[in-house]
Amino acid sequence: LTRVTLSSPPFVSRPLHVSRTRHTLRTTSHASTPSAASSEMATDWESMWHGNGTTLQPGQAFDANQCEPSFVALIASGVLPTGRALVPGCGRGYAVAALACDDRHVLGLEISDTAKKEADVLLAKSPNAKHAEVQVADFFQHQPAELYDLAFDSTFMCAIPPARRTEWAAKYASIIKQGGELVSNVFPIGPFRGGPPFALSPEIVKDLLEPVGFQVVSLTETPATQWARGRPEFLYRFRRV
Dihedrals φ, ψ of 110, to 5°? Predict the structure, then answer.
């Protein structure tokens, strides 16, 4: 693997007014309704999406104004499972819209009411809108009626405290069916301290997912022409065995 060093964390295209509790994204045990996702998490990320009365615009901060081009290419290749798909931390819903099709129903999860509203606007313009939806819910509390065939994780793992990463992996293992896939857009690549976003690497992702029953399908270093946020990234595919 080619190792890439970043001198500073990404997502700095404009100042954000964020609660100083952003590194303590705890989840309450009673989170069972859309508004019951941890109040700390919801307030924190809601302030990123709608700070000082201003809604985050496409292309600002962590919003890439597109689905990751490397993932769009992977979808177009036709190798990904159809059926039920999940995109946690879906933001404006770019990946939800990209995945949705006649053979695949996609659910995006968000903990920001503003993000969900923005995603609803974007999805309403999609020709596959009937195959896509976004809910305000906590990924760690999410209990699907049926297991998923596919999940896509991008700028979600990097947004949660590193102390919750084993919980992140275990949760995916519990909601993706055997033979289903998890695609991880590994970003941002470190080293740097602090977050969110917290630094990631392909090794970190692999070391988390293999012990809970995922097997590597492929690891691709994304060419610079396909970087979604102007920084290096990797696309990692895993299958639950």
Answer: -145, 155
